[in-house]
Amino acid sequence: MVLRIILGAVYTAMAVGQLVSWRRMPQILGTYDVLPAAVLPWLAGGLVAGELVCGVWFLARPRSHALAPVWVYTAVSLVWAVLGVQGYLRGLSIDNCGCFGLYLTQRSSWFVLLQDALLLVYAAVLIRSGLRARRAATPARTEVLDT
Asked: Is the pLDDT of residue 141 over 80?
């Protein structure tokens, strides 16, 4: 439950930071040099929407074991991780990773990649706990044998 509250606060803050930086988000995402400029506003919109969905859900329902917001969280975390890893491996100079828009800027580095990896570990933990809770809530099936 505590993990969901923390991640909910972080991802909601990310979405808010990106929303108030909306005009610059396509340019920030453009520094990763992976998609054409016309697609970048859509990528930014998808990231913000995903961050809001999982962030608000985790804050509003921290005891929920629903997997939908966890999958959204996983997808958003994976996109940020892929952007970071490919930029780092290609040696791109990225002064602002963009996670919080124009706020709380971080230069692309191994430390940012470590943060991304940790977010993916948290995704695995949330998926596992959600699947366990779902299995525990499902009554055991019994087969009736005709004799």
From this structure: no
Residue 95 inside a domain? The answer is yes
Closest CA to 18 of 8, 29, 7: 29
Whether residue 140 lies inside any domain: the answer is no
Reading the block at residue 91, the tokens are 């040696």
How far is residue 120 from each of residues 39, 96, 103, 114, 147, measured CA to CA in Å?
A: 25, 20, 22, 10, 51
Identify whether 143 is part of a domain.
Answer: no
**Dist. CA 109–CA 12, nearest whole Å:** 23
pTM for the structure as a whole: 0.88
Is the confidence at residue 117, as pLDDT, over 80? yes
- The three-state secondary structure class of 9 is helix
Say if 18 falls within a structural domain.
yes
34-52, pLDDT tens digit by residue? 999 999 999 999 999 999 9
Which residue range forms the structural domain that includes residue 121? 2-132
Integer-rounded Cα radius of gyration of the chain: 18
